[in-house]
Amino acid sequence: MRKESSTNTFNEKQIMDSCGMAYSLSIIGGRWKPAILCRLSHQKMRYSDLKNSIENISERMLIAQLRELEADQIIKRTVYPVVPPRVEYEMTDLGKTMEPMLSAMSDWGNMHRSVTEKEVAEI
Predict the structure, then answer these.
(1) How many alpha carbons lie under 13 Å from residue 58 in its C-beta half-sphere?
(2) Which carries the bigger pLDDT value, residue 49 or residue 118?
């Protein structure tokens, strides 16, 4: 945890306050959030199905990433009062507004990968 008065904290706050792209990336960035958002953009999913669909993610990391996305109001968690408990996750209306951006990022990433792989193969 960084000190509130550190230069690094000050610089981060300044960037987040002045750059929408940096702010967006802080919400969706990280190793696992794109995988989670990709799956939830297609359908509502139970916790266990989400866990099983993302290879190599630990329970601890999945829970932490889901909590962050929920705190940012990107996804919604619904707990059904049954035994055993059933928990489902889905995109909120605010989260759904991200779908064109996520789709464009995916398209660009796939294009960039294919271009750079061709260039590496030619070397």
Answers:
(1) 3
(2) 49
